[in-house]
Amino acid sequence: MNDLKFGFRQLLNNPGFTAVALLTLALGIGANTAIFKLLDAIALRSLPIREPGRLYFVTTGGPVSGLNYATVEHLQRDDAQVGPVFAYRSAKARLNTGSQVDVTLHQLVSGNYFTSLGLLAVAGRTLGVEDDQADAPPAAVISYGCWERRFGRSAAALGQPIRLNGAAFTIVGVAPRGFFGLDPQSVPEVFVPLQLQPLLEPGDAKLLKEFGRWALTTVVRLNPGVRLETARTRLTMLFQQVVSANAQQWIRAEDLPRVLERGVTLKPAAKGAARLREKFSQPLLVLTIAVSLVFLIACGNVANLLLMRGVSRRREVAVRLALGASRGRVLRLLLAESAVLAMLGGALGLLLANWGERGLLMFLPADAAGVAINLDSGHRALGFTAVISILATLVFGLAPALRATHLPLTAAMSEGGRNAGCTVSSQRLGRVLVVAQVAFSLLLLIGAGLFVRSLSELLAVDTGFNRRNVLLLTVEPKLSGYRDTQLDDLGFKLVGADLLERIEAVPGVSSASLSSFSQLGNLPGWNVPIKLAAQNERGNDRAGAFWKRVSPRHFETLGIPILLGRPFKSTDGENAPRVAVINEAMARHYFGDGNPVGERFSLTSGLEALGQIEIVGVAKDAKSTDLRSEAPRMFYMPFLQFPNAENLVFEIRTAVEPSTMASVARHLIESVDSGLAVSKVTTLADTISASLVQERAVATLGTLFGFLALLLASIGLYGVLAYAVTQRTREIGIRIALGAPAPQVRRLILQQGMRWVAAGIGAGFVGALALTRFLSSLLFGVSPVDPATFVCVTVFLGVAALLACWLPARRAAKVDPMEALRCE
Question: What is the pTM of this model?
Answer without folding.
Answer: 0.79
